[in-house]
Amino acid sequence: METLYLIFIDPFVQMAIEPAFLAEVLIGGLMSGVMYSLVALGFVLIFKASGIFNFAQGVFVLFAALNFVGLMDLGVHPILAFIITLGIMTALAFAVDRLVLRPLVNQNPIILFMATIGIAFFLEGFGESIWGGDVRPVRVGIPDTALFWETGFGEILVLSSDLFAGVIAAFLVTVLALFFHFTPVGRALRAVADDHQAALSVGIPLNNIWVIVWAVAGFVALVAGIMWGAKLGVQFALSTIALKALPVLILGGFTSIPGAIIGGLIVGAGEKLFENYWGLPLLGGATEEWFAYIVAMIFLFFRPQGLFGEKIIERV
Amino acid sequence: MLYREAGQFKTSYSADQAMLTITLDRWFVFGLTAFAIIGVPLLASEYIIGSILVPVLILSIAALGLNILTGYCGQLSLGTGAFMAAGAYLAYKIATNITWMPIWLVIPLAGLCAAAIGIAFGLPSLRIKGFYLAVATLAAQFFLLWLFVKVPWFVNNSISGVPPAPPRSIFGIQVTGAAAGNEAKYLFVLAFVIVLAWIARNMARSRIGRSWMAIRDMDIAAELVGIRPLPTKLSAFAISSFYCGVAGALWALCYINSVEPTAFDINRSFQVLFMIIVGGLGSVLGSFLGAAFIFLLPIVLNSAPGWFGYSIASDTITHIEFMLFGVLIIFFLIVEPHGLARLWQIAKEKLRLWPFPY
């Protein structure tokens, strides 16, 4: 009875008593959710266009951030560093396409997935051997002051860097949406995502499309890397945190951009709420490690295609 | 010239269905096994036995387990480390609480516990597959490790949380724990390897193995020809987790001599996955070749500069190791998706025709 009370009633009582704390937890969760979304976005882009599940996306984030920070430490202006890093990511996309994907064309998806694990390992070692393994702070002038938001039921602490991250993420998603809907390249990308062969037959060059989509994913990774680096410093934990993007994808569906965003927000907010109201008092904490995966697993039983994914129809 | 099957007539069904039909193959395997049992403990040094052969053999068992699930049944798993951890923690729990039980029974029992856990986490595979399943197994990886760390019951409320392996003996010779001799540990592990490899090889070519392969190649078509997906997939999960559990128990009790969570983290899962990719998906031999290759690569990389008189900082070595790993994975996938085992097979086929190819 006592346990049931602690599980089903007490957390909600706590939420009602201290709405300001609830709001802070929620905001913190949503902000880390934005970060997950940004990584998940890169996954979705590549999966939509080429059907490849790019495990290396997390390391892409890290690699982009490392290059950016490394260049800035050499005294390069942030904007210039951003552009150079973008160039590096494009070159990387080109290299991945030529050296890894081309020779493996028409292979089983699992083989391609494992190849991206190989890319992840290579980039991790490569980035580290060039730029070293220390934690580096990112100073791009994102203001990091605590704002107190006065509400009817108490003061809520909000970090301005969190707000900034939210705005950037929203901006990025808008830009991507516009890019996909109103530019010829974006339309070509959507056509390829829809049907490879039909896209080929109307004259869309599939080869270039793959490079472009990997480069766009690199761009998203760079933005995610900078945001994340500004929050936590650029460190190698980034690539493991990025594993969290997997349950986000499950929730949102592998092929949906809005799904990636909403899935990320759900996972971020959900794990913070669970940790604070159930994990710490009842389970001894550190539940953030597995909460998202378990939620994703349970979710898969009911909707294997995710919230917004396309229904999978299989033929023999 | 020597290695050929011409002239070796099979006159009975049992001869036709033997595991190794070519005489030379059979003698080679028997000879290798005999050498491993008798020759190695006599000839090899303590270091080679204790620090190379024992871990390679244990990892081979884990690779065999993952190969059953991923290579034969086609279910991608990233939770190998967790199933190994389940075997390790439960072996410790059983060995310390049921003290009369002989250690050779404790380890398979821990494997059975791991198999039960494997079935639980394999249940989603009935509805989902591919990458989605990989995420479900990641749930096992993170959740189980968290559970073993957070619940002190598993380690008998040990304060450090990293209890030493209990010393146990067979025929009066200690085989587990820090005080056991390397030869004893080696022979103990080897016994498990031989039995499990023999079982795996036979499963792969019997009804159950064929149904796994049918599910792997196309599950809907397999279902249409009358293979029930539920028992097939879950049996693959159960047997794979059993192998991984045994490997984890041996790893904790016979190699690192303590039960610690860091030995079974996500990197272990990836390491075993690489072993079966490099060794060969869907091959018993490949599990051994892959385990040896992936385990020895860092050791060779670490000592190679020393042979040539260079010295490289250890963190640089780690980076190079990461890069080489990545490159090798991609290289193997491109050049030979079937891994080292396939290369061995090609060599044998060449040898069969030598010196008079068509």
Task: Explain what you see.
- The complex is a heterodimer of chains A (316) and B (358).
- Chain A has 316 residues and is mainly alpha-helical.
- Chain A has one domain (2-302): ABC transporter involved in vitamin B12 uptake, BtuC (Orthogonal Bundle).
- Chain A has helices at 2-17, 19-50, 57-73, 78-101, 109-131, 160-182, 184-194, 196-201, 206-232, 237-241, 245-252, 257-283, 288-302; strands at residues 146-151, 154-159.
- Chain A has a two-stranded antiparallel sheet.
- In chain A, helix 2 (19-50) packs across helix 7.
- The longest helix of chain A is centred in the N-terminal third of the chain and has 32 residues, at 19-50.
- Chain A is globular.
- The model of chain A has no long low-confidence stretch (mean pLDDT 79).
- Chain B is mainly α and 358 residues long.
- Chain B has one domain (44-353): Orthogonal Bundle (ABC transporter involved in vitamin B12 uptake, BtuC).
- Chain B is built from 14 helices and two strands; from the N terminus they run H-H-H-H-H-H-E-E-H-H-H-H-H-H-H-H.
- In chain B, strand 1 (169-170) and strand 2 form a beta hairpin.
- Chain B is globular and about 70 Å long.
- The mean pLDDT of chain B is 85.
- Chains A and B meet through helix 5, helix 11 and helix 13 of A and helix 6, helix 9, helix 11 and helix 13 of B.
